[in-house]
Specification:
homodimer; about 350 residues; mainly alpha; Cytochrome Bc1 Complex, Chain D, domain 2; 2 domains; two-stranded antiparallel ribbon; 3 strands; about 35% helix; globular; disordered N terminus
Chain lengths: ~350, ~350
């Protein structure tokens, strides 16, 4: 698996041309969309409303945006997420920013697409807690504005369906991308776009081996087909003192999905884009700072203890990967005149 | 008290001129601001960020917007609000839309101003749950972008204070107003702005006595000085079957604030503006529909059972009081690079 992934990296990078740091791609300005769910402005607008609408949760308190806050790093700044009734999940919310460029979703890659992912939290009892997708759709149908909008976006007999709801949310999420930052400008030729610290950090990250896994324009791996994940073992090397300190191996990761021994402690490689604004770190949110996260990764994945200056430079580079975030106009949610849909 | 209030109504309305329905004022296009907190664009922008920032709550899950959602009716569509750890409050969240025109805040009027109000939920253990205002300020000071913005908006030595935080939030809330709706156009002379149903509803509401308390441009009472509330007893008349059905008297309202016998079951008269999108109804959110709410009020406050057609007309009028909502650009919250402020 590891070898195969690396081969793909080589091929993928080969297409983008070379620069001083080898082949480094910039983020596309548009996220790819599947053939059966083309991104259209009306669909994005509907998806945005659904994304921000807490009425999609059982008690009306949790929206997609609650844990994937697009007013900040696309997540919730917490070690683990909080669903209805104050229930805490076991994992740290991954950022929604640039999730459109990932080939599998969730930390353990259990969803192939954004469409698949969007359906999960709705009926997870500790997240949005709806009894079933039918109950979700029943509620959406009680909101006249949604019925009208679904009808326009998905013409036909049966517009308001869970599949169409997920398609609309996914279409919105495909607009939540952050191309054109300092790094993108840098690899396109503007050598002054990155600070000297960040440039050194990029070089160091490449030399010590970080980019073997954090490759590609989102630094989350090569451009793989939807559903094929870039999974890596964490920790890759046994014996790091950080392993016990941060309880890294307690959660078995992808093994919980496949039950295959070889998937124990395997995780989808997360994106570096906007990582500076998604503390705390890792699947369990156990590490508070980005600096410490870099040290942990160097130790557990590369068997290295980096000099403090190298850590600082890498952090400077990672910080350069923040934004720019496209302006979000807060949607007005369709009303249910004179009646609430929450009991 | 009742007599005094009615006198003020008379004077306040007297200044606005007469029309077919007597003196009916439209909503001002700008909300008044106190002398010590003038509304400025930079302050509004800072206040908006604070309003949307869940990091102002202990566990990072609850923002002002959680219970006063400006993407909908300015509240949470729930019978009662939910704070940190899934804790439920005893009352239904009042709308933030046009709160700027109310002379006291909270259902029981325990805060005189928007500034006073903004401080309450932060340290309420079942709402945002911060240990103290000092802890709030300590956290805000950990977010560099806020420190810079507070410094610009509140120049001087000690910019980041709880008073300035409340001032900024209040300044933002003073922009959350909905003038220029169908009713406003109607009372300014466009007789076609309101549907015939809504016009009949307005006339009926006035004739049966609703507007005695729901007077003024926000239909929440006359233009009183800040801190002087338009309180009314609910139920005003004993013996309505709705009293027990909806547990109206269980919460003693303003009595809990003043401990004065005369304040038992006294409540601030809520605004009618946007009432159609703030179901469920009343201080305890016990009534699901606007139609039922109209019937309850007719019974408990006026001792009347209205014909169904009158109820429908009044509802049509109330629905005409929705929006238009000013477009909200979702703010990007100041980041804490590489570190979360939530434990």
């Amino acid at each position: 698996m590891n070898f195969a992934v690396k081969s793909i990296v080589f091929i993928a990078l080969g297409a983008t041309g070379l620069n001083a740091y080898g082949a480094l791609p910039s983020l596309p300005k548009v996220a790819p969309s599947p053939k059966d769910n083309p991104t259209t402005p009306a669909k994005v607008e509907l998806g945005k409303k659904l994304f921000f609408d807490p009425r999609l949760s059982k008690d009306g308190t949790v929206s997609c945006n609650s844990c994937h806050n697009v007013m900040s790093g696309g997540e919730d700044s917490r070690p683990n997420s909080v669903g209805i009734n104050g229930q805490k999940g076991g994992r740290s919310s991954p950022t929604v920013w640039n999730a459109a460029f990932l080939s599998v979703q969730f930390w353990d890659g259990r969803a192939a697409s954004l469409e698949d992912q969007a359906k999960g939290p709705l009926t997870n009892p500790i997240e949005m807690g709806m009894e079933s997708h039918d109950v979700v759709i029943e509620r959406v149908k009680q909101i006249p504005g949604y019925v009208t909008e679904f009808g326009k976006v998905f013409p036909g007999k049966d517009s308001v369906t869970i599949d169409n709801l997920a398609k609309a949310i996914a279409a919105y999420e495909r607009t939540l991308i952050t191309p054109d930052n300092a790094y993108d400008k840098f690899v396109k030729g503007n050598k002054k776009a990155l600070s000297p610290d960040a440039q050194r950090g990029l070089k160091t990250a490449q030399e010590v081996g970080c980019l073997s896994c954090h490759s590609g324009p989102a630094f989350a791996g090569p451009d793989l087909p939807v559903g094929v994940g870039n999974f890596q073992k964490f920790p890759a090397l046994a014996g790091s003192p950080y392993e016990t300190k941060y309880k890294i191996t307690e959660d078995l990761g992808r093994f919980n999905v496949t039950k295959q021994e070889s998937d124990k402690n395997m995780w989808r490689v997360p994106t570096w884009r906007n990582v500076a604004v998604t503390a705390p770190y890792f699947h369990n949110g156990s590490v508070e700072t980005l600096e410490e996260a870099v040290k942990v990764m160097a130790s557990t994945q590369l068997g290295k203890t980096l000099p403090e200056n190298d850590v600082k430079d890498i952090v400077a580079f990672l910080e350069s990967l923040t934004g720019p975030f496209p302006k979000q106009i807060a949607p007005m949610l369709p009303k249910t005149a004179g009646r609430s849909v929450i009991k």
